[in-house]
Design goal:
316 residues; mainly beta; Acetoacetate decarboxylase-like; 14 strands; 12% helix; globular; binds 2-acetamido-2-deoxy-beta-D-glucopyranose; ADC_dom_sf; signal
Length: 316
């Protein structure tokens, strides 16, 4: 019962209070990896226009997090080891931002569950365990502003004649390149194909304050991220900044209409396994459906014209 309520809330949280997209000041004109413009702070809050956002509940999956839940840099740091994770109540998100203070970018987010965090006396909160973004300016700012453990990846999107859409993600943080993060992997870390029903029924995702109030009542706070400090890494562009304080961040999605479809997460045969080594493209474990216990076909919401917001964090 509790899991079902959380599942509904996970879907519902995407429409939080309506925040109009603010006019954003860009901190880079040419926001690409190749650009020579210096890193400039783009302070929170960020209210981002998402061209497309896919939200995939990760529910009832394994209680033990796989090694691949974290990037090699964060894996053995307090970012991963502080507090405990109530796994199996999480989300995967794949978003194409049309604009942001650092220009357009793509993002892949894994939230494996709800975490406790020593020092935070509040309720369990989501923690983004692993996240890829498509350029250095969002990596640098995301790590610095909110302790979000961003790493760069190349995103390869393709639309097919049958109406499906695929994405393949080639990260820089392969285990072998841990000290460099110098360029994308040869095989994808993740690939997925989205299918929408032939007649796209638009479903308004409801905001239910009753659900979030109930969740608070049973000890969960799904509208906030709890992020311990991040270690510093050696990215090619100096983008992997570290931080020294904890941050709790309000986040949400507003103005969204959703169509309900599915995401196929089968990773083979051209997927991320290297030969039959059981290792994936970045040196982590290989699972045919990407994650332990994940089914091949997953419910996916496709949100249209939404605003994704990351508030100013409470730091401690
Ligand atoms: C970021 O850099 C990598 C190579 O270093 C490249 O593959 C990727 O496409 C770049 N992304 C952007 C948005 O420039
Ligand atoms: C961004 O900067 C790079 C490196 O100077 C350059 O190759 C590229 O053409 C620029 N892109 C735009 C859109 O100006
Ligand atoms: C992380 O810790 C594990 C076990 O303690 C160890 O096997 C692994 O090599 C460590 N990884 C890194 C990147 O330090």
């Amino acid at each position: 019962m509790r899991v079902i309520i959380v599942a509904l809330a996970s879907l519902a949280l995407w429409v939080s209070s309506t925040t109009a997209a603010d006019t954003m000041t860009r901190v880079c004109n040419n926001c690409t990896n190749e650009s020579t413009e210096p890193f400039v702070e783009a302070p929170p809050p960020w209210n981002l226009e998402a061209e497309v956002a896919y939200v995939i509940p990760m529910l009832g999956l394994s209680n033990d997090l796989p090694v691949k839940a974290y990037s090699p840099l964060e894996r053995n740091s307090t970012y991963a080891t502080s507090g405990s994770c109530l796994a199996g109540i999480g989300l995967m998100m794949i978003i194409r931002y049309k604009d942001s203070p650092v220009g357009p970018y793509d993002e892949f987010i894994i939230i494996p569950g709800l975490y406790s965090n020593p020092g935070d006396t509040g309720l369990r909160k989501f923690r983004i365990s692993r996240i890829y973004v498509s350029h250095k300016y969002t990596t640098w700012n995301g790590r610095r502003n909110w302790n979000i453990p961003k790493h760069i990846a190349r995103f390869d999107w393709s639309s097919h004649a049958d109406g499906t859409e695929s994405v393949k993600i080639y990260p820089h943080d392969t285990t072998s390149l841990l000290n460099e993060e110098a360029g994308p992997s040869e095989l994808p870390f993740f690939q997925g194909t989205f299918t929408l029903p032939p007649i796209v029924g638009l479903v308004r995702v409801p905001l239910s304050t009753a659900i979030t109030t109930y969740l608070d009542g049973i000890g969960l706070d799904v509208l906030k991220l709890s992020s311990p400090p991040l270690p510093q890494g050696n990215g090619k562009y100096g983008e992997l900044v570290g931080t020294s304080r904890n941050a709790n961040t309000q986040f949400g999605v507003s103005g969204a209409w959703a169509s309900v479809g599915s995401l196929d997460v089968y990773q083979g045969p051209q997927g991320d396994q290297i030969g039959s080594t059981g290792k994936n493209a970045v040196g982590d474990e290989y699972y045919p459906n990407f994650w332990p216990n994940m089914p091949r076909h997953n419910l996916a919401l496709r949100l249209h014209g939404s605003t994704v917001s990351f508030g100013a964090p409470d730091v401690y």
